[in-house]
Specification:
By secondary structure, the chain is of the alpha+beta class.
């Protein structure tokens, strides 16, 4: 009896762990999808002075279900799932470099972790908390879209 309970518990735990490793679903619509590389363009609120957003990035991988990027000082990584326009981000792990202006990075990561919906329009990604816009990103050129001799990603206007 104890062996049977142990076996059932082991199988349930294995199933839960394997399902947690499954990649998230991607947006199924023509055109630009969520699984791309994005660069922070703006914080939508007018009461907050926008920091230098040039290097803050966000990438979604449909193959691995991972979200990753650069938050201004540190790199971060986690997993995501998408159901229609609903976005679910698991807690993000981050490097821990000492940053001079950690308030901007903290604000960005806080907003990113609160996002539960997304909208893509005109090659622009808006992450939202319900109907409130939190972060706005521009699509970054992939290597195939870049001119020859230029290996740096660039935001697409």
């Amino acid at each position: 009896m104890i062996k049977r309970l142990f076996l059932i518990g082991f199988l349930l735990l294995t199933g839960v762990l394997l399902s947690a490793c499954m990649p998230g679903q991607t947006q199924k619509s023509p055109g630009v999808g969520l699984a791309n590389h994005w660069q922070l363009k703006a914080y939508p609120d007018s009461h907050y002075t926008k920091p230098d957003t040039q290097h803050i990035t966000l990438s979604f991988s449909a193959k691995t279900g991972q979200v990753s990027g650069y938050s201004g000082c540190n790199r971060y990584i986690g997993h995501y799932q998408v159901t229609q326009q609903h976005l679910s981000l698991n807690p993000l792990a981050s490097t821990r470099r000492l940053c001079l202006n950690s308030q901007d990075e903290t604000r960005f990561l806080s907003r990113l972790s609160k996002a539960n919906y997304f909208q893509i329009k005109n090659r622009q990604l808006t992450l939202q908390l319900d109907d409130q816009a939190l972060l706005i990103f521009s699509l970054v050129q992939t290597p195939l879209e870049q001119p020859i001799g230029d290996s740096r990603p660039k935001a697409i206007p």
